């Protein structure tokens, strides 16, 4: 996620520019009032040339979040994911299903709070979990069938309430079903291969490395905005960092972790991951900006909500799955 943490902007991971707006607000009313009471000759005093002027100290860049909490939570999640991934595949599928249900709860809650849209959570949660399991057990065909049944369940469930707002509620429900559980199903599809755990680990590593490269390079060198109307904190330099970091990591992962993989395939895979992860992060920022919120939730200290961590992972999963199938097959 290419960002410049010292320029927070409302609507993304570092998006909170409300503080800047206060410079012309009530915080300065006392100074204005005092200036009106002072005599005219004291309101604009002559500069004191004999007093040395001390230049303001340069401000340090700040990450904008509790880094210690963020690192602790990230390490804890990583341990749970890796342990379940390599010990029992079914446990990892359960972890993905739980993350999907929590993500759906966060998304539907914010839609109702900020827009008055009541996307039915019960059919979404049940259908979303079933979608992930069906993808693991029955493959892509099972995932599509589960998606269709979930959409139908959303349409029927909403019929139990008054017709006002029906169209926007079911539209949001179908969108949520596709955006969260259906995209997450491709993680389960990655797991079905013989070297499935290594494919999933490659997918996770490349996404994390892409985000880390964007953060590091954007924080240090970011000057040119990438998409200022969507997320002004993201920079072109950060995107370049994401591409470079992900391509190097992709070459290493495909060469040493994936059966029959080659380093040049990893370069292409890393490039695709950097692009999809960045677009996913921008898409999530667009949703949060439209809703007028900074984070989707507060479940993960230092990170926000589950959806704030899934933003770059969800659209990247189908990209990695497709390229893995093209490069080394699905078995």
How would you describe this protein?
It is an enzyme of class 2 (transferase). The protein is mostly helical. It has helices at 18-21, 29-37, 40-43, 67-87, 89-115, 121-158, 166-191, 196-221, 236-256, 263-291, 306-310, 313-328; strands spanning 225-227, 231-235. The chain has two domains: 67-192, no CATH class; 194-331, no CATH class. The chain has a two-stranded antiparallel ribbon. A hairpin with a 3-residue loop joins strand 1 and strand 2 (231-235). The longest helix has 38 residues, at 121-158. The radius of gyration is 24 Å and the shape is globular. 44% of the residues are buried.
Helix/strand class: mainly alpha
Total helix count?
12
The total strand number stands at 2
Q: How far do the termini sit from each other?
A: 32 Å
Question: Which oligomeric state applies?
Answer: single chain
Largest sheet: 2 strands, antiparallel
Domains (count) = 2
How much β-strand is present in the residues? under 5%
The mean pLDDT is 83
Radius of gyration: 24 Å
Brief characterization of the structure:
This protein is mainly alpha-helical. It is 68% helix and 2% strand. It starts with 17 loop residues before the first helix and ends with a helix.
């Amino acid at each position: 996620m290419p960002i410049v943490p010292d320029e927070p902007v409302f609507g993304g991971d570092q998006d909170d520019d409300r503080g800047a707006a206060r410079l012309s607000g009530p915080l300065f009313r006392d100074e204005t009032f005092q200036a009106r009471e002072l005599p005219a000759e004291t309101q604009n005093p002559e500069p004191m040339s004999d007093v040395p002027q001390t230049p303001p100290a340069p401000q340090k860049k700040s990450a904008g979040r509790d880094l210690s909490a963020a690192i602790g939570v990230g390490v804890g999640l990583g341990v749970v994911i890796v342990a379940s991934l390599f010990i029992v595949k079914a446990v990892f599928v359960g972890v993905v299903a739980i993350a999907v249900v929590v993500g759906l709860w966060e998304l539907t809650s914010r839609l109702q709070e900020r827009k008055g849209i009541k996307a039915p959570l019960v059919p979404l949660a049940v259908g979303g979990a079933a979608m992930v399991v069906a993808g693991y057990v029955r493959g892509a065909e099972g995932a599509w069938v589960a998606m269709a049944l979930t959409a139908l369940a959303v349409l029927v469930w909403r019929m139990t309430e008054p017709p006002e707002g029906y169209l926007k509620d079911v539209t949001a429900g179908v969108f949520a079903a596709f955006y969260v559980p259906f995209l997450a199903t491709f993680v389960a599809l990655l797991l079905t291969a013989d070297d499935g755990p290594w494919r999933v680990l490659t997918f996770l590593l490349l996404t994390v490395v892409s985000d880390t490269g964007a953060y590091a390079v954007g924080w240090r060198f970011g000057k040119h905005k990438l998409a200022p109307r969507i997320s002004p904190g993201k920079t072109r330099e950060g995107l370049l960092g994401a591409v470079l970091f992900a391509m190097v990591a992709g070459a290493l992962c495909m060469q040493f972790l994936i059966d029959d993989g080659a380093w040049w395939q990893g370069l292409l895979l890393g490039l695709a991951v950097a692009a999809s992860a960045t677009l996913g992060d921008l898409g999530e920022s667009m949703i949060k900006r439209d809703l007028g919120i900074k984070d989707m939730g507060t479940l993960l200290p230092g990170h926000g909500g589950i959806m704030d961590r899934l933003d770059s992972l969800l659209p990247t999963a189908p990209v990695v799955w497709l390229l893995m199938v093209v490069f080394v097959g699905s078995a």
